Amino acid sequence: MAKPILVIHGGAGIIPRESLTPEMRQKFLEGLENALKAGWNKLGTGCSATDSVAAAVACMEDSPLFNAGCGSVFTRAGSIRMEASIMDGATRQFGAATQLKSTKNPIQLAQLILEKQPNTHGFLCGEEAEEFGALHNLPQEPQEYFKTERRWKQHLEGLELDKRPQVSEDFSVVGPKG
Amino acid sequence: TVGAVALDVQGNLAAATSTGGKTNKMSSRLGDTPLIGCGTYAENGLVACSGTGDGEFFIRSVASYDIAAQMKYGGKSVQDASKFTLKSIEDLGGSGGLIALDSEGRFAMPNSGGMFRGWIGQDGVPHTAIF
After folding, report:
1. Torsion sign across C-alpha atoms B19, B21, B24, B28
2. Which of B120, B123, B127 to probe by mutation at the A interface, max A CB count within 10 Å?
3. Quick check: B20 and A72 CB within 8 A?
4. What is the predicted ipTM?
5. Which of A117, A156, B110, B120 has its CA 20 to 30 A from that of B130?
6. Are strands A93-100 and B2-7 parallel, antiparallel or unpaired?
7. What is the CB-side half-sphere exposure of residue A172 using CA atoms within 13 A?
8. At what angle do helices A49-62 and A106-116 cross, to 10 degrees?
């Protein structure tokens, strides 16, 4: 019997230490704790590692703090496009999806693909991917569900920077990097 | 981007990653997150890995499998392998972070300048950190 363990991340290098207020810091730490507990509720009760990582990631997708699911960043056009993947180390099978705009929890779609058709259609894209999820009763949401004020502000700031010729190609100066 | 790696009581590893991409990306842009071997990888007896950061650099580095390959063929520890991979990403001009967990429960969380991260083990006590 192995000793179960779960490790998570919620993004890297996106907020300078000096600009992270104590309140925001606390919110992020609580968001991480919630994700750890969600994953541990699976892992600690004997569920699979695959179910555990999916639960932890879905919890962060549901939080507006993180750049995934609700709280995702905006495209240049002001829309939301999400992607996710999951891999089972036991079988080395995977499920992945990209160009998602209405799937509430992209990781659940990736897990569905892993469970249903990993060897024939492991990586799905766009509307057909979301239709596959909807067919299996995965919750769908309008684009408004995923949008947050904080991300919209980053989007507008990025567009302003984009207008400046000296930094027009330097996306590294703006917000999350994916 | 968010991600998770886990080892269950059966000794099985798994990895998952999800993202909205990067701010003001072109709508058709694909990142490393859904690409197995780049943003996500898991192999029993070896390692599970999830990445976050400059996606194109994680793709160029085949980052997640790069960690697995160093451990598989070079006998490196998960800490040394993940540190080396992140360094190679930084050398290319990218930045970000990784979480990697081996089949013995040892893990590494290297990052360029801070990463929201956490872990929980058998005692059920969550541990979190940012910088």
Report:
1. negative
2. B120
3. yes
4. 0.98
5. A156
6. unpaired
7. 11
8. 150
Is B23 touching A (CB cutoff 8 A)? yes
Better-predicted residue by pLDDT, B67 or A168: B67
Spatial distance between the Cα atoms of A87 and A104, rounded to a whole number of angstroms? 20
Distance CA A89, CA B13 (A): 5
**Of A110, A83, A14, A158, whose CA–CA distance to B21 is shortest?**
A83
Which residues does A31 contact at the CB level (< 8 Å), separation at least 6?
A10, A60, A63, A65, A66, B116
Pick the closest to residue B50 from B6, B21, B17 (CA basis). B17
**All residues at 6 or more sequence positions from B29 whose CB lies less than 8 Å from its CB, including other chains:** A75, A81, B21, B22
A3 in B contact zone (CB under 8 Å): yes
Chain B residues with CB under 8 Å of A60 CB are 2, 18
The predicted-structure confidence for A94-103, as pLDDT tens digits, reads as follows 999 999 999 9
Helices (H), chain B: 55-60, 63-74, 78-92
Q: What is the pLDDT of residues A128-171, one digit of tens each?
A: 999 999 999 999 999 999 999 999 999 999 888 777 655 444 44
